[in-house]
């Protein structure tokens, strides 16, 4: 008899939001983070892990920028304060920020946590676009979370494709077997990818189609869909098609499109799983949700979230994380360091929580 044993069965919540240089102030993030009693995880449970990417966070120095954390990271920590979460890591490159929080119980199953950043544009010498990422060994599997902000404007498609390849080429990690983004067993790539609609429909006509929820027709013109088909970029990744209105460009404080730009699905979440690369092990990331959050009117973009069921299953036998890690990452790993840094992350987290009381 074939038996499948789950080594990991996690609900991972991803969120991307271009906050247009606003600070969080009195924003209530509870519905955004599924803390309002309704989640998209199995059995209405809270996510096991949150990975949140922001674009255009304010880079002007904050007077109270304690612990070098951005106000948005502190806001998330504060929002998750009543639950059993620990900040795992964060990385910022100018206005692009990625941060990861996980439930306490998963921390012993995280190793070799690394962050990376790539600035794009002319040799990375100028411009404020690029990507930040967090990679780790999670229950023995290699996963990379990449948050990017690509070149803006309808006509800059070529630059967006170049940005993508520059990020893929320049992103390097130290983990054995996982030097590059696409070496990872699981890749989640999200952000303000800035893809627009091809063709010359007017902003008014796009809005009319959106009002009639003709998303499928509009998505046939979506630059990201078109270039993934052609294999120009993002073709290793999959995306569930959005069943929500374009998330750009709104008049701040409203749900009205600002028709100075043609509405577009700039904010996207893609993923890739290499399901069967280890004998006797099956990896999967079934997508449970993909939605925009219209209640949030802070910036000219709507936040977009997705949840995934991150599963690692062994056929006919069980593995400990260490055995699996050995299989995936090789034996030359050094488990001591992440332990210590996670302990510090926890201490800082507790300290931050206290200073906010
Ligand atoms: C919580 O927020 C989600 C997402 O915004 C929404 O779909 C859901 O209806 C809300 N639930 C409650 C109980 O307000
Ligand atoms: C720390 O590392 C030790 C030895 O590798 C391991 O036994 C222990 O479970 C780890 N603890 C955490 C919290 O990661
Ligand atoms: C699992 O065990 C069954 C029965 O012993 C065998 O037929 C099957 O090939 C095994 N599968 C794997 C992946 O080892």
Automatic annotation (TrEMBL):
One cellular-component annotation, GO: cytoplasm
Signal peptide: 1-21
Keywords tagged on the record: Signal
One Pfam entry name: Exo_endo_phos2
GO molecular function: phosphatidylinositol-4,5-bisphosphate 5-phosphatase activity
Biological-process GO terms, alphabetical: phosphatidylinositol dephosphorylation
Tagged with keyword Cytoplasm: no
Superkingdom, taxonomy of origin: Eukaryota
Domain annotation Inositol polyphosphate-related phosphatase: ranges: 8-316
Name of the protein in question: Phosphatidylinositol 4,5-bisphosphate 5-phosphatase A isoform X1
Organism of origin: Drosophila mauritiana
